[in-house]
Amino acid sequence: MVIETTTPEIEVLIQQRLQAGGFKDAEDVVLQALRSMPAGHPGSERIKAIQSMTFSELFAPLRGLNIDFEQDRQAGRDFEL
Known about the structure:
This protein is an all-alpha fold. The chain has helices at 8-20, 26-36, 42-51, 55-58. The chain has a domain at 8-60. The protein contains four helices and no strands. It is flat, with a radius of gyration of 21 Å. The mean pLDDT is 80.
């Protein structure tokens, strides 16, 4: 079986794990990742559900909470360009 990644982030993560040590090759990284989450893990279904949500569906539970996402202009320090 040949597995090809199409996401650059995956390759970067694999390279980071290899450089950190503890893995002999990319196949070992993938094997350990798969072993760490058993098939049918309850979290995997939740992750799939979240990934398929629209932005408004994801934040729907926050409706009506009057959350202010405005940036605090007083925080930080002054600077000149």
